């Protein structure tokens, strides 16, 4: 298998479901911020979530945005099943949920019968390379209604070795803190260390991960025609930004 053929596996989906409660910094705050940003843009129509994973954000969108459908797309069967199950168990139910298996790099899933009110994604767009992100941002601009918002949470590429070192230390600190506050011990942090997830410490990246810098994201979003491109939160080499289709 060549580097470019490397695909996210179901084993990685299972590991992610085990470790992400520790490994995703300020996860609850991130979800609340994304939902608020979508809600503030008066998202009353359909919302797309790209690579929904196990459906935590999906369930929050369904619960807090009472109108419109949520299109939750992902490439993993087990993640899509987890998303459907979580939504079915949530107070909002799953009547407005539409799931679909996709390859994020393909473009066939980016066309919708009606313009979207919002598009969101968490920790997945970094699986696209630079040109892939540019094309995605242009396709999302085309898919959104005027006034529609794109909210992106993702890992970014620090622009310097010093930036990588700071991101690595901050990420360890965040995971350590989450393990202690969730479980009262460091087992979750040790599992994160054993899994060697802190790629800011790696000399070379896994070819499945292709993070770009914050500035590149801003440039590509503006090039696509987005306005109000804004950074809302960042720590440990991970950011949340939003951009509006005028
Ligand atoms: C790091 S997880 C993030 C999941 C979730 N959005 C979250 O924030 O917890 C990455 C997700 O991207 C999905 N994924 C990875 N590569 C993909 C691809 N080529 N096409 C579609 N989905 C992909 C995985 O199945 C997984 O659900």
Strand content: 15-25%
Count of helical regions: 8
Distance between the termini: 42 Å
CATH level-four homologous superfamily name: Vaccinia Virus protein VP39
List SSEs in N-to-C order.
Answer: HHEHEHEEHEHHHEE
CATH class: Alpha Beta
Residues in helices, as a percent range: 40-55%
GO molecular function: methyltransferase activity
Protein name: Methyltransferase
GO biological process, one term: methylation
InterPro entries: Methyltransf_25, SAM-dependent_MTases_sf
SSE layout and pairings?
Blueprint: H1 10-23, H2 27-40, E1 47-50, H3 56-64, E2 70-74, H4 77-89, E3 97-101, E4 116-122, H5 130-143, E5 144-155, H6 161-183, H7 187-195, H8 214-223, E6 227-235, E7 238-244
Parallel strand pairs: 1-2, 1-4, 2-3, 4-5
Antiparallel strand pairs: 5-7, 6-7
The structure holds S-adenosylmethionine (SAM).
Residues 8, 13, 16, 20, 51-53, 74-76, 79, 102-105, 122-124, 127 line the site of S-adenosylmethionine.
Keywords: Methyltransferase, Transferase
Domain Methyltransferase: 47-148
Protein name: Methyltransferase
């Amino acid at each position: 298998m060549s580097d470019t053929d490397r695909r996210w596996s179901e084993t990685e989906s299972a590991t992610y479901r085990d470790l992400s409660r520790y490994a995703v910094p300020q996860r609850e705050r991130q979800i609340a911020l994304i939902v608020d940003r979508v809600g503030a843009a008066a998202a009353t129509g359909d919302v797309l979530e790209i690579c929904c994973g196990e459906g935590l954000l999906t369930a929050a969108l369904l619960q807090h945005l009472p109108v419109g459908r949520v299109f939750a797309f992902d490439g993993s069967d087990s993640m899509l099943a987890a998303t459907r199950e979580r939504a079915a168990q949530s107070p909002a139910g799953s009547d407005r949920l539409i799931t679909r298996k996709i390859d994020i790099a393909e473009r066939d899933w980016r066309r919708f019968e009606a313009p979207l009110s919002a598009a969101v994604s968490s920790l997945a767009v970094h699986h696209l390379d630079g040109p892939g992100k540019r094309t995605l941002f242009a396709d999302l601009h085309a898919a959104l209604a005027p006034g529609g918002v794109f909210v992106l949470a993702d890992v970014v590429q620090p622009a310097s070795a010093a930036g990588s070192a700071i991101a690595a230390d901050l990420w360890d600190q965040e995971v350590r803190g989450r393990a202690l506050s969730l479980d009262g011990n460091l087992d979750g942090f040790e599992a994160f260390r054993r899994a060697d997830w802190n790629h800011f410490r790696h000399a070379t990246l896994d070819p499945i991960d292709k993070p770009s810098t914050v500035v590149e994201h801003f440039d590509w979003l503006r090039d696509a025609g987005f306005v109000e491109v804004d950074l809302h939160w960042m720590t440990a080499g991970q950011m949340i930004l939003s951009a509006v289709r005028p």
